[in-house]
Design goal:
7 helices; 23% helix; 32% strand
Length: 311
């Protein structure tokens, strides 16, 4: 469906270098990287908002990266940090103006659905310019979804959402993929928030897409500590001459198979509403965090048990 071919771009320095990847119809792809890595610039190029210095983007064999009277592509919906709202129109009007082609009853029902989705029903009559930054982002998402594009591009979409709204949006996007075979690209500095959505994840660093993998692979088998911690808590402990990386749930309290023995000293437990975060020190005074359904205050020994790499 989407093909990004050898895209390079920079301003006073090279930001993106030889970016190549593709997205299939009905696929959700996430790109994770630190602030300033070039994620937002890449989305704008894919959307046809800016022209790359080199390379091309194609959507269903049609070239996106070409000069147009109005920048962008009608079948690509982009929500980035520039919300581009009609500031003096109300929240409801901002959405309604995107779907004037629909019949009244269908349009009204769709507006109610989108207002509820982004939690703006109570603010439907408020002018967009009077909304907070987070509310403006949510309105921008609703406006984009109203257009029903074939490809959705989301830049840090969950940064201003509470857990309830985040879950509603995630479920809505998953339904869109299943029902309409929409394709989605998300970019985020926090890999943990895109794991549950993604079919595959890329890591953007120093202008290049370093590697891709399934969420499971990148979470449990990250190649470096820096990359691994982009997706959540990761323990780094020296055993003999070797340093190992393992997630807080990659352990047992009884020896199983080839588990790596480790003596630990309990420090504290923190209940997070689902699990206990159990904090320990190793014999080398390195910190270890383990997840369990109960406090592990009586634990003195654990066995690191890595997840199956074939999963």
């Amino acid at each position: 469906m989407l093909s990004v071919q050898s895209v390079s771009h920079g301003y006073d320095r090279l930001i993106l270098s030889e970016i190549n990847f593709s997205v299939k119809q009905g696929e959700i792809v996430s790109i994770v990287g630190r602030s300033g890595a070039g994620k937002s610039t890449l989305l704008k190029i894919i959307a046809g908002k800016i022209m790359p210095e080199k390379g091309d983007v194609f959507l269903e064999m049609e070239q996106v990266t070409k000069q147009r009277l109005i920048a962008g592509h009608s079948e690509i919906g982009l929500v980035n940090q520039d919300f581009k709202l009609d500031e003096f129109h109300s929240v409801e009007e901002n959405i309604r103006l995107q779907i004037l082609h629909l019949k009244d009853k269908i349009r009204d029902k769709f507006i109610e659905e989108l207002l509820s989705l982004v939690g703006l029903t109570a603010l439907r009559s408020q002018q967009a310019r009077l909304l907070s930054g987070g509310e403006q982002q949510r309105l921008a998402i609703a406006r984009m979804l109203a257009k029903e594009p074939k490809l959705i591009l989301l830049d840090e979409p969950f940064s201003h959402l509470d857990q309830l709204l985040r879950n509603k949006l995630i479920n809505y996007l998953l339904d869109l993929v299943q029902i309409r075979s929409v394709s989605i690209i998300l970019v985020s500095h926090d890999g943990a928030e895109v794991l549950g959505l993604s079919d595959k994840v890329y890591f953007l660093k120093n202008g290049k897409l370093k590697y891709k993998g399934t969420p499971f692979k990148l979470y449990y088998h990250s190649k470096t500590l820096e990359e691994g911690r982009m997706f959540g808590p990761l323990n780094s402990v020296k055993i003999g001459e070797k340093r190992i990386l393992f997630r807080p749930d990659e352990f047992t309290e009884e020896v199983v198979g080839n588990g790596i023995h480790m003596d630990v000293v309990f420090e504290k437990s923190i209940f997070n509403g689902i699990l206990f975060e159990n904090h320990f020190l190793t014999s080398n005074k390195e910190k270890v965090v383990l997840y369990q359904f109960n406090s592990m205050k009586n634990t003195r020994t654990i066995y690191v048990q890595f997840k199956n790499k074939k999963a």
